[in-house]
Design goal:
heterodimer; A: 249 residues; alpha/beta; Rossmann fold; 2 domains; six-stranded mixed sheet; 10 strands; B: 243 residues; 8 helices; 84% helix; elongated
């Protein structure tokens, strides 16, 4: 479980996050949603420690990450897997080497075992025949799947996904969403996904928090989101024409 | 001054939360190939031609029959050992390797590859930059020696080719009044310049913000700042060691 307490962050005069409290449960896909520029990615980066919040704390299973020294932070980070928006794969390595990378640097696993583990993870994300391909040779959807394989190769306790569907077609987006949800349940890990894709919200949102102008306005799940009673959330949910038609039903 | 302070903190960060020796060993070898082996051809080409041109131009300026011909190769030797091999090559090194380091690390920054390393619990600056600095310090002095040898050979070959100095005169000039302390000065310069170019270029790349345009700007700034640092360091080293 990850707990976020009273997180605030400003850039210059602009307050991006204002006193956010949230809890992300283990074994569930937790979603942070909101329009562009509402602070979703900043919140995610505060949680993983890529940005230091101005105030507030982040707890990983009762361990205070924000106040921890570099060594402890490093230890906690070794339990984290993260899928970045653009994949963030290393161009100098091929697909298999990218997936093996966390094991290579963070563990003393023998090479054969590392390769087996990497190929197992690649198979898990449906990329068993792409292991020797260069990063530049694979599509956007494949990059996301390699990113997921790399994120789970070290058996993480926490999985973070920053807009996993950006730049993907609707069908591939659904596949990625399903993969994230399946992995979360299979490994019983705490997954936090930042998204503004309503398909993801409806499809995999077991616990959802809605951010609006740096504030948390609503928390619930995909069953409740269409009748939240929060006008800003309704505007977000029903912005899509298809969803807009549903609003009247 | 803020930039200098940030640079010093950056250098300090290279030595905390380091990875295993085996990890660095592999990375340093890769960087040595990238920095040393892949730059050798350019260094050989440039220094051979500069050595040749220096010989021709020195001969052209020596119009007095009272000056012996072996002075030509003496001038080539002095220029090569003291300035051409360590300093002029450092400027070329900054242009080729420095810009490549800044561009590579800058691209990793804007494509979130550095964030990915940090999230994994890896000290990204130490992992990415330390091997580049170590490889640079190992390889650049070798490139300087190679460059010096090539410049002298270039001068020798052109001297024979256009018949301005005999082989005996050329070798006599190389040996006449040779002070081996100059080699120590050249090697000292090469270690200092290698450190400055690799660390400044990596620093510029590491703190890139924005997109492709900013990566280009970081590469340009890396070369400019490295060249300025090299020229300043050159002045101080010569002042200290030749007093």
């Amino acid at each position: 479980m990850i707990k976020v307490r009273d997180i605030s962050k400003s850039f210059g005069d602009k307050m991006v996050l204002d006193g956010i409290d949230a809890e992300f449960s283990k074994g569930k896909t937790n979603l942070i949603i909101g329009s562009s520029g509402t602070g979703k990615s900043v919140l995610l980066k505060c949680i993983v420690g890529l940005i230091n919040p101005d105030q507030g704390d982040v707890f990983y299973d009762l361990r205070n990450f924000t106040e921890a020294d570099k060594e402890v932070k490093s230890e906690i980070r070794r339990e984290i897997g993260m899928l970045f928006q653009g994949g963030a794969l290393f161009d100098s390595k091929n697909v298999e080497e990218n997936v093996m990378f966390p094991l290579e640097v963070l563990t003393k696993t023998p090479l054969d075992e590392m390769r087996d583990r990497a190929n197992h993870c690649l198979k898990r994300v449906g990329l068993e025949n792409a292991n020797k391909k260069a990063v530049s040779e694979i599509s956007g959807g494949m990059k996301k799947r390699v990113g997921i394989a790399r994120a789970i190769v070290n058996n993480p306790n926490y999985l973070f996904c920053d807009e996993p569907n950006s730049g993907l077609d609707p069908q591939t987006s659904i596949l990625i969403d399903e993969l994230i949800a399946e992995i979360t349940h299979e490994l019983d890990i705490t997954t936090v996904v930042v998204t503004h894709d309503m398909n993801s919200v409806i499809g995999i949102g077991e616990n959802i928090i809605f951010l609006y102008k740096g504030h948390k306005l609503w928390e619930g799940n995909n069953a409740d989101i269409t009748h939240s009673g929060v006008s800003q959330l309704d505007d977000f949910v029903f912005a899509n024409k298809v969803m807009g038609k549903m609003r009247g039903i | 001054m803020t930039g200098f302070g940030k640079y010093m903190i950056f250098l300090g960060s290279l030595f905390v939360r380091r990875e295993t020796f085996a990890t660095y060993y592999k990375l340093i070898l890769e960087e040595c190939v990238q920095i040393g082996v892949n730059s050798a051809f350019l260094f050989i080409l440039v220094s051979t031609f500069i050595g040749a041109v220096t010989t021709v131009q020195t001969a052209y300026n020596m119009v007095s029959p009272l000056i012996p011909r072996f002075v030509i190769s003496q001038v080539v030797r002095e220029m090569t050992v003291l300035e051409l091999a360590p300093t002029i090559m450092a400027i070329i090194y900054a242009g080729k390797i420095g810009s490549s380091m800044a561009g590579g690390i800058g691209t990793m920054r804007i494509t979130e590859q550095i964030d990915a390393l940090e999230v994994m619990g890896i000290n990204s600056s130490s992992y990415l930059v330390l091997p580049k600095i170590v490889a640079s310090i190992l390889m650049y002095p070798l490139l300087v020696v190679l460059s010096g040898v090539c410049a002298i050979i270039g001068g020798y070959l052109v001297g024979q080719f256009i018949n301005i100095i005999t082989p005996t005169e050329y070798v006599s000039g190389l040996r006449f009044g040779f002070n081996d302390f100059e080699i120590i000065i050249a090697l000292t310069k090469s270690f200092v310049f290698a450190f400055l170019i690799s660390s400044i270029s990596s620093f510029k790349g590491y703190f890139t913000k924005g997109g492709a345009l900013e990566v280009g700007i970081a590469s340009t700034e890396a070369v400019t700042s490295s060249v300025i640092a090299v020229l300043l360091a050159d002045y101080f080293i010569v002042n200290i060691m030749l007093r």
